[in-house]
Design brief:
The complex is a heterodimer of chains A (about 120) and B (about 110). Chain A is mainly beta and about 120 residues long. Helices cover about 0% and strands about 50% of the residues of chain A. Chain A is globular and about 40 Å long. In chain B, the strands form 2 sheets. In chain B, strands 2, 4, 5, 6, 9, 10 and 11 form a 7-stranded mixed beta sheet that branches. In chain B, strands 1-3-8-7 form a 4-stranded antiparallel beta sheet, with no helix packed on it. Chain B starts with a strand and ends with a strand. The chains are: A mainly beta (about 120), B mainly beta (about 110).
Chain lengths: ~120, ~110
């Protein structure tokens, strides 16, 4: 069973860049996986942000596409999320997850709360 | 993008009741639909994938059905530990999209 763990600052100033990492047990490139970020605003539902594939291909939620970047660091067995020009609306619990393609998302990190505030 | 419409948004039922939650897709997603359970302060937990396959370790009172555009999650006999919010997620194509969630409470 793969383990995922998010890490990064819990507080980000408005207009700055939110940066999170997800550490993965096991190899990021050993299978046809899509390494995924999902967020959940306080009291709201789940919002898919995007993925990076084991080959380095990416796809993002169209509503955030211009502000989101997901990258892979195989040397550290991590993948990362950056969201630029954050506002209070980006305050959320951010989850990293593994998506196995046609069998879907099967594993999640525990989530990390990021608050955007001055 | 595929839109997922989940209903109801909230419900209450008695212990032992049969509970049904529905998810409708805006286009045909074959059987590529998953159901997740989320309890407060916890990450979502997968219950069902490819519409009807039960995740290992999930109680058999949970079941999923459907194909195409209409899907159902059924809890055959509601238990106190089933109090949670349930989400559907289409995994037919990217971008992935979730339903809005159904909060299940005990009456």
């Amino acid at each position: 069973q793969v383990q995922l763990q998010e890490s990064g600052p819990g507080l980000v100033r408005p207009s700055q860049t939110l940066s999170l990492s997800c550490s993965v047990s096991g190899s990021l490139t050993s299978g046809a996986y899509y390494w995924t970020w999902v967020r959940q605003r306080p009291g709201k539902g789940l919002e898919w942000l995007g993925y990076i594939s084991y080959r380095g291909n990416t796809d993002y939620n169209p509503s955030l596409k211009s502000r989101v970047t997901i990258s892979l660091d195989t040397s550290k067995n991590q993948f990362s999320l950056k969201v630029t020009y954050v506002t209070a609306a980006d305050t959320a619990v951010y989850y990293c997850a593994r998506d196995k393609g046609f069998s879907g998302v099967d594993s999640w990190g525990q989530g990390t709360l990021v608050t955007v505030s001055s | 993008d595929i839109q997922m419409t989940q209903s109801p948004s909230a419900m209450s039922a008695s212990i032992g009741d049969r509970v049904t939650i529905t998810c409708r897709a805006s286009q045909d997603i074959s059987n590529f639909l998953a159901w997740f359970q989320q309890k407060p302060g916890e990450a979502p937990k997968r219950l069902i994938y490819v519409a009807s396959s039960l995740q290992t370790g999930v109680p058999s009172r949970f079941s999923g059905s459907g194909s195409g555009t209409e899907f159902t999650l059924t809890i055959s006999s509601l238990q106190p530990e089933d109090v949670a919010t349930y989400y559907c997620l289409q995994h037919n194509s990217f971008p992935r999209t979730f339903g809005q969630g159904t909060k299940v409470e005990i009456k």
